[in-house]
Amino acid sequence: MGRKWNNIKEKKASKDTNTSRIYARFGREIYVVAKQGEPNPESNQALKFVIERAKTYNVPKAIIDRAVEKAKGGSDENYEELRYEGFGPNGSMVIVDALTNNVNRTASEVRSAFNKNGGNLGVSGSVSYMFDQTAVIGFEGKTADEVLELLMNADLDVRDILEEDDAVIIYAEPDQFHAVQEACKAAGVTEFSVAELTMLPQNFVEIEADVQAQFEKLIDALENLDDVQQIYHNVEGDE
């Protein structure tokens, strides 16, 4: 699973350099989750999870608080969660998650991004069956053996534990996310380099250099859409 972590790390690095966009996306997601449930992370686990994720991207507390307060204020702004699945150059697979207040606009923009960059949209389920939803939690300061022991003490059996670049990376079932993170916190972990629910491809594909540029244009075009929240794909070594 090492290369899966490399892809996640590259994705984070890419987003860390585009702070205004990532802040806006987290602000939107926090608002939606807070509005759907209680605007209190202590009683709303989904909100707590999003805020924890936001912290790993260094989203300022002021932005988090503003989104929560907006939800508390009873804003009538509504968003719909959408997932698009499609194919890029050389049959590469791409999943696009979006939050939108205009479904027709978003569908048109996503379709256009695929069509203009050597790809095409597929039907629901045409790609996602080749990905596994996975909780990924990473931090420094402990060894894989130490993490295995603390998880065993918490009666948690996860998919895998790896040491990569001075960090320990835990791959777990999605419904284990909160339990794993709380067990790590109880063992003294105070800062996480990654805390994500992500879609990991079951298999990676490599594409030729001349096709790689076209694929990157597709991902960039999708990333630049305001309604797009997350993009997952199965191309080796690119985010």
Automatic annotation (TrEMBL):
Its main location: cytoplasm. Pfam families: TACO1_YebC_N, Transcrip_reg. This is Probable transcriptional regulatory protein FPZ44_19535. Keywords: Cytoplasm, DNA-binding, Transcription, Transcription regulation. Signal peptide: none annotated. It is found in: Cytoplasm. Belongs to the TACO1 family. YeeN subfamily. One of its GO terms (biological process) is regulation of DNA-templated transcription. Residues 3-74 form the TACO1/YebC-like N-terminal domain. Coiled coil: none annotated. It comes from Paenibacillus agilis. InterPro entries: Integrase-like_N, TACO1_YebC-like_2nd/3rd_dom, TACO1_YebC_N, Transcrip_reg_TACO1-like, Transcrip_reg_TACO1-like_dom3, Transcrip_reg_TACO1_YeeN, YebC-like. Residues 79-235 form the TACO1/YebC-like second and third domain. GO terms for molecular function: DNA binding. NCBIfam families: PRK00110.1, PRK12378.1, YebC/PmpR family DNA-binding transcriptional regulator.
